[in-house]
Design brief:
Structural class: mainly alpha
Number of helices: 7
Radius of gyration: 33 Å
Helix content: over 70%
Distance between the termini: 60 Å
Number of strands: 0
Largest sheet: none
């Protein structure tokens, strides 16, 4: 809520209770009742008045999220993952890159980052296989294959070429 909204909120909340607590004892006194009883009734009337005044005011002045704030932005998520890698936060980076690959399975960069963040060579190889399926001629993919393939070659029967 901005400052104008806060000011209006305070004015309305004070005015309802003030008017209720000042006028109601006068009404009670004019009818021959005790003004103190009227004061407590006035506080209740003021509180009720506050509800009637403040709920619509709150609905009008409440902060709303900007349009499109809940949409998923692939580029921002990818950049957040890259920033997490630079900051050394591997689990956070892995989380962002998994989100990117779920939203866009054809994102080669995210698959390569996941291969770099893998905990085992076999896990890295599975991510590289995804990247190779998308873009086998990409120089970054070929370089990553050249690094990881010697580490997993023994699992595939020592064949000369990567599968």
């Amino acid at each position: 809520m901005d400052q104008v909204g806060v000011d209006l909120f305070i004015v309305y909340s004070a005015s309802g209770a003030l008017i209720g607590s000042l006028i109601t004892p006068l009404i009670y006194w004019s009818k021959g009742r005790k003004p103190a009883t009227g004061f407590f009734a006035g506080v209740l009337v003021g509180a009720f008045g506050n509800l009637i005044l403040l709920i619509p005011l709150w609905l009008i002045l409440r902060p709303r999220p900007p349009a499109g704030a809940n949409t998923f932005d692939l580029a921002v998520t990818y950049q957040m993952g890259a920033a997490a890698v630079l900051g050394g936060r591997k689990e956070e980076a892995r989380f962002y890159f998994v989100q990117v690959t779920q939203a866009d399975p054809e994102h080669v960069g995210a698959w390569l980052y996941l291969a770099n963040l893998a905990t085992t060579p076999l896990e890295a190889w599975s991510y590289l296989q995804q990247a190779r399926a998308i873009e086998p001629g990409n120089p970054s993919v070929q370089e990553a294959v050249a690094v990881v393939w010697p580490q997993v070659r023994h699992l595939y029967g020592e064949s000369a070429n990567p599968i």
